[in-house]
Design brief:
This protein has about 160 residues and is mostly helical. The chain is built from seven helices and no strands.
Length: about 160
C-alpha cells in the first residue's frame, strides 16, 4: 500500500497540491513568527542565528505538513478515509497560534473561554515551542504512514 501511496503523491495533481499547502503553511508560520517578534527585532535581540534557525524550522515544518496532507489525500483515495494523524498538522498550527501569538490576542482568547492565564515570556522568541510543533508534525507523519501501511480498506470481502 505504501508503494501505491508514493505513486499517487508523485502525480502532477499531488505535486501542485503539495506546493499550494507549502505556500499556505509558510505563510501561516511566518505570520505567527512576525506576530511574536519581527525578524529584525529578533536579530537585534538574539542574533541573526536565531532568525535563520526560525526560518529554517518554518521551511521544514511547512514541507512536512505539506507531505502529511498529500499523504492523507493519497490515503483517502486508496482507502476511502482520512488518517487520524493528518489532524496533527492542524494541532501544530493551533498550538503555534496560541503560544507564538501576540500576548493580548492570546489573553483575550483564553479569557473568552474562561482560562485566565497565558504564556507571557517565550524564551528565544518561542523557539522551544516551535520544536514542540515540529515534533507534533513528525508524529503525525509517522501516524499517517502507519495507517497507510496497516489500515484496512473500505471494500468488504463477500
Amino acid at each position: 500500500m505504501i508503494e501505491q501511496a508514493h505513486k499517487l503523491i508523485r502525480t502532477q495533481k499531488s505535486i501542485l497540491q503539495g506546493i499550494l499547502f507549502f505556500i499556505i503553511f509558510m505563510t501561516i508560520y511566518t505570520l505567527i513568527d512576525r506576530n511574536n517578534i519581527s525578524y529584525t527585532e529578533m536579530s537585534q535581540t538574539y542574533g541573526s542565528y536565531l532568525v535563520y534557525t526560525n526560518i529554517s524550522i518554518n521551511i521544514v515544518m511547512a514541507l512536512l505538513s505539506s507531505l502529511m496532507l498529500v499523504l492523507s489525500t493519497a490515503n483517502a483515495q486508496l482507502k476511502g478515509k482520512e488518517p487520524l494523524g493528518s489532524n496533527l498538522s492542524f494541532v501544530s498550527v493551533f498550538f503555534g497560534i496560541l503560544t507564538y501569538g501576540c500576548t493580548p490576542c492570546v489573553i483575550a482568547f483564553f479569557g473568552s473561554i474562561g482560562i485566565a492565564f497565558s504564556v507571557t515570556v517565550l524564551p528565544l522568541a518561542g523557539l522551544p515551542y516551535k520544536f514542540i510543533s515540529l515534533f507534533l508534525i513528525v508524529i503525525g507523519i509517522i501516524w499517517t504512514y502507519y495507517e497507510i501501511k496497516h489500515g484496512k480498506c473500505m471494500v468488504k470481502k463477500s
